[in-house]
Amino acid sequence: MRPTYHRPRARTTRRRARWASGLLLAALAACAPCASASTLLIEGAGDGHGVGMSQDGAYGFARHGFSYQQILAHYYTGTTLGLAPPRSVVRVLVGSKVQKVPLERYVRGVVAAEMPSGWPLPALEAQAVASRTYALTAHAGGSRFDVYSDTRSQVYLGVAAETASTNSAVAATAGQVVLYAGRPVPTYFFASSGGMTENIENSFPGAAPEPWLIAVADPYDTGPSSTWKLAIGYTAAAQRLRPLLRGAFRGIEVLRRGVSPRIISAEILGSAGATPVSGPELAALLGLNSTWAYFSVRIGNVVHREPDLSRQPHIPKKPPVTAPVVPAAPAAGAQGGAQAPGNAVGASATGGVPAG
């Protein structure tokens, strides 16, 4: 079902938004019971950080006849395919112990944990290549280990999780990794984009822009997480936002959005002042699926839209989808062709933020 999106007025200025917010604050302050009976309404899209490959989107592309090479080329802009160094090993933190697992065996234990085995083969193949590349470029534990076995990196469940279809996808893409300018690069992925992915610098605070991790339209991401709604009572919202709330909770004002348009920065409005907050921090505090969110307040039967200074439309324009031009797959049995970078950033592949 297509959601109803809030659109900021075309000529809204910060002064006018503050004025509108002030009216709401005044109304809440004049009626304390009104504030306690108010509800924060949230309409959102997607599930996860929004950077790189959307798993639901990859499923949609596969259902529409796209190959795994085309899926990867769509989500990781300007990349090619190459081969991992032979006999690569991944150091996985499982519980409190580090296990050294051959790369292909590791990928078999990841694909079955990250995607339903009944999904189309091109989606599973795209996941295999993305997971293999991610493992080679992640250094979540520094010199001690490469990846966590959970969503802080990517889920790894070992041999017990393997299935015939996911193993076939791994075998069909054996050794293949995503390259940018001839080197493996971090291939973040997540559950659902809601219709568009996001630039890495807009989703991971402090991250530098990366040319292969830019926002792209995702028209076939129509899974159950593509849109969602949430209602939180003001008292409950205040409790969740307490670490950053000054005084009584009065609302949320969005300041800046990314391309998709996920929230980059906002302010938590309190009776004693406003507190700046990043989009990811706000989503984490409120327990949202993603930072693609729009806010309203319901007082009784009246709904007020929260101030939004971003001027971003709620639905990105989706250009027609054409098959990306991809290079030929690497020849079977080719040696090398790629070396893992020595200073790659580790990150949560399925919905978190870069590991510290």
Structural class based on helices, strands and sheet pairing: alpha+beta
Dominant shape: elongated
Number of helices: 10
Strand content: 15-25%
List low-pLDDT spans. Answer: 1-30, 331-356
Helicity, in percent? Answer: 25-40%
Q: Quick recap of the structure?
A:
The protein has helices at residues 14-30, 32-36, 55-63, 68-75, 103-114, 121-137, 164-172, 200-203, 234-241, 279-286, and strands at 39-45, 53-54, 80-83, 89-94, 97-102, 147-148, 176-180, 183-184, 189-190, 227-233, 249-257, 263-270, 273-278, 293-299, 302-305. The chain is of the alpha+beta class and 356 residues long.
Could you explain the architecture of this structure?
This protein is an alpha+beta fold and 356 residues long. It has a domain at 53-203. The chain is built from 10 helices and 15 strands. The protein has helices spanning 14-30, 32-36, 55-63, 68-75, 103-114, 121-137, 164-172, 200-203, 234-241, 279-286, and strands spanning 39-45, 53-54, 80-83, 89-94, 97-102, 147-148, 176-180, 183-184, 189-190, 227-233, 249-257, 263-270, 273-278, 293-299, 302-305. The strands form 5 sheets. Strands 10-1-14-15 form a 4-stranded antiparallel sheet. Strand 11 and strand 12 (263-270) form a beta hairpin. Helix 5 crosses helix 6 (121-137) and helix 6 (121-137) crosses helix 7 (164-172). The protein is elongated and about 60 Å long. The two termini are 38 Å apart. Mean pLDDT is 84; it is low at 1-30 and 331-356.
